[in-house]
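INTERNAL AUDIT FORM
Audit reference: QA-55
Scope: verify that the stored structure record matches its stored sequence.
Auditor: D.O.
Record contents follow.
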Amino acid sequence: MTTKIPIIIQQWANSIANRDAKKQTGFYAKRAILLATYEPILLGQQEIYEYFIELLSNENIRCEITQNYSMGNEKNNVSSGLYTFSFDDEQGNKVIVPARYTFVVNNNRIVDHHSSEEPSKED
C-alpha cells in the first residue's frame, strides 16, 4: 500500500477546475460505474457525462485530494481517500464539501468510482 496518488486520479482532480464535462468523462472507461452522493448509480460514459455537466456548472469549482491510499500500479489500482470540493454558490459565497472516494482504475481508465460526502461530525 502507498499514499502516492496515481497520476490519473491527480489529473482527474486537477481537471475539475477546467469545468469541461467531456474532458472529465474521458478519464472513465466506456462502461464505467459512478456512485455519487446524491445520484442513482450512473452507468457508462453518457450518464457520467450528464452528471459532470451539472457538477461542473458550479463557479470556481475545485477538487483537492487531502488523503490517499493506493494498491496496485499506475495502470491498475484501487485508491481510496479524502478530497475536498469547493465552489461558489449563486450568491458568490464559497462552499466547501469534504468527501471520500474510491477509484478503481484498469488500463489507466477509471472503471468504478464511489464518491460520497463525508458524514457530519457530531460534537
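Auditor finding: record pair retrieved intact. The two ends are 32 Å apart (CA to CA).
Action required: none
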